[in-house]
Amino acid sequence: MENNEVAAIFKQFALYGDLQSFKAFGGGHINSTYLSVWNQAGVQVRYTHQRINKAVFTQPEQVVANIRQVTEHIAAKLGTNAGNTPAETGIPISRRVLQLIPTRSGQFFYIDPAGEYWRTYLFIEQASTFEVMESPELAHKVGVAVGTFQHQLADYAGAPLYETIPDFHNMHSRYAQLDAAVALDAAGRLPSVRTELAFLEENRARGMILSDGLADGSLKRGITHNDTKLNNILFDDATGEAICLIDLDTVMPGTILFDTGDLIRTASNTACEDEQNLSLVRCNREIFAALTGGYLRAAGGFLTAYEKSLIAESGRVLTQIMAVRFLTDYLNGDVYYKISRPTHNLDRARTQIALMQSMDSQWEQLLRCVEQAM
Ligand code: ADP
Ligand code: GN1
Ligand code: MG
Q: Among 127, 146, 229, 312, which is disulfide-ready with 266 (CB 3.0 to 4.6 Å)?
């Protein structure tokens, strides 16, 4: 896309002043993110723009509608100070929840001449994300952040959210997709993944627990973020506190254990999601304890006893679902996730399996960590 075409898109939003510059930003696997700089009568202001991936989100207007519902609910709640901890009350609301900017015609997305959907947020200044977990202190903070997000949404009573990607965290569907990829072997890669497939096969039945719980009603349906990766949590550069959960594309109905689990998957491991040296991939128990401790501090009050009993299991299940999804994409010839090397998806699948094996080697201790945190 030419620069002037991109600039013309940004100018559709109700942003004032002179557009000075913009650049591509962020390293997610799905959407394309840009950061723009504007001069507003002498003050520099920045915005985040994202092109929604239409292959993944086939109804982008529903994605934006979900985000509006959720961000407005949280902002209203923060405005009344309900559920705020004393430390949080001094932080402006616009730093603690994403704020969508409308277009000049009042919509919250813009469709460009090529039919692509765009949205714009206030850029939260002087805040950063972490790619890998660094310390138990950081783990405690991210646990609190995800528990707080769940708490903020626990009383949501607005319009039902759209299921923008049907069966997103349904393990039955994810295994069905893996089975189909194996049967097709579109990229001729099947012979190289026999070990990984055998492991996932052994764990198939165990991995169904959250999906089955939602289906039989033993787990309640709430609102879930569905992508509570460590790098979707913004930290204030000045105070080091976790201030805002970003990347709200996948907010949908689901069990909150999807978020607890994805948090454990991404934040209990001190190696990267695509680490090639598998000896570095492990569930660090000290970090796991700090993470679940922080999480339960914020969420302990509203989780059911059954949900609490599945905290560690949710981490294992979400790691498994990502192993299944990455391996499926590898077999399909890398059609879903952005990759930067031919074995990228295979490497990602292998780190997930290594993380599950690390959890298994210390399973009783992990369960004890959760009990102690309670
Ligand atoms: P992706 O789906 O590609 O992961 P994200 O929404 O997570 O996209 O955005 C990518 C990166 O851009 C984030 O990790 C964060 O560093 C930055 N970012 C996104 N939105 C904002 C925002 N409103 N304020 C500050 N930084 C942001
Ligand atoms: C994708 O967009 P990003 O990189 O935050 C994916 C998540 C996975 C994650 C794995 C819509 O998230 O489900 O957990 O990669 N998002 C979608 O890193 O599929
Ligand atoms: Mg992200």
A: 229
> Ligand nearest 165 Cα, by number?
2
Q: Which atom of ligand 2 lies at the shortest distance from residue 28's CA? A: 4
pLDDT of residue 85 exceeding 60, the answer is no
Mind listing the pLDDT tens digit for each residue in 113-148? 999 999 999 999 999 999 889 999 999 999 999 999
Ligand 1 contacts CB of residue 250 (under 6 A): no
Per DSSP, 232 falls in state G
Q: Which of 235, 297, 28, 70 is nearest to 161 (CA)?
A: 70
* Lookup result for tokens 């006893």: 305
Quick check: 12 and 110 in contact, CB under 8 A?
A: yes
Contact call for residues 171 and 257 (beta carbons, < 8 A): no
DSSP reduced 3-state for 318 = helix
Query: Contact 228/248 with Cβ under 8 angstroms?
Result: no
**What DSSP letter does each residue of 131-186 carry, written as one string?**
SS---HHHHHHHHHHHHHHHHHHTT--SSPPP-SSTTTT-HHHHHHHHHHHHHH-T
Kindly list the structural domains of the chain, giving each domain's residue range(s) and its CATH number in brackets, ordered by start.
3-125 (3.30.200.20), 136-373 (3.90.1200.10)
Q: Which numbered atom of ligand 1 lies nearest the CA of 231?
A: 14
Nearest atom in ligand 2 to the alpha carbon of residue 249 is 11
